[in-house]
């Protein structure tokens, strides 16, 4: 238990019948008239939905201890993803619903953070950008070296993104894991 005076960005609260909400931002407000209050922006840990919520100052809120562990993606076991704790070497099976879009960027040996609450994995957090090899893309036509157009490229994970026309099959590129956008070539 904590009070609204103890709120910090990233803190996870248990509200509305056990739902987990992460504090994105908060602001203590003391109007000239009436009691002080805390205005917050909360993000649902599971669905990603963001809501604004106001609490009276000093209100007790239930906090949740979410364990964020550094893990490494090991392999796929059927539909499940198996991660290894980099400290204890324990293995953790995570179902595809929890992995979500992160599966588009996961390669064996990929380091990531797994958030765990009461022995249940909540979500996977990847680095902001990952390096992946282009498995296949149509060859660019001579003269297509300028900026502008894009073409589809299939990455080694099986995910398809838009890349500039000059990118060729076998090149290593940097991809933004939040938006799925091409960020640039990786110089070997």
Automatic annotation (TrEMBL):
Pathway: Protein biosynthesis; polypeptide chain elongation. Its main location: cytoplasm. It comes from the Bacteria. It is found in: Cytoplasm. Gene3D superfamilies: 2.30.30.30, Nucleic acid-binding proteins. Transmembrane segments: none annotated. GO terms for molecular function: translation elongation factor activity. Residues 130-185 form the Elongation factor P C-terminal domain. InterPro entries: Elong-fact-P_C, NA-bd_OB-fold, Rib_uL2_dom2, Transl_elong_fac_P/YeiP, Transl_elong_KOW-like, Transl_elong_P/YeiP_cen, Transl_elong_P/YeiP_CS, Transl_elongation_fac_P. GO terms for cellular component: cytosol. Keywords: Cytoplasm, Elongation factor, Protein biosynthesis. SUPFAM superfamilies: Nucleic acid-binding proteins, Translation proteins SH3-like domain. GO terms for biological process: peptide biosynthetic process. Residues 68-122 form the Translation elongation factor P/YeiP central domain. Signal peptide: none annotated. Belongs to the elongation factor P family. Involved in peptide bond synthesis. Stimulates efficient translation and peptide-bond synthesis on native or reconstituted 70S ribosomes in vitro. Probably functions indirectly by altering the affinity of the ribosome for aminoacyl-tRNA, thus increasing their reactivity as acceptors for peptidyl transferase. NCBIfam families: efp, PRK00529.1. This is Elongation factor P. It comes from Streptomyces carminius.
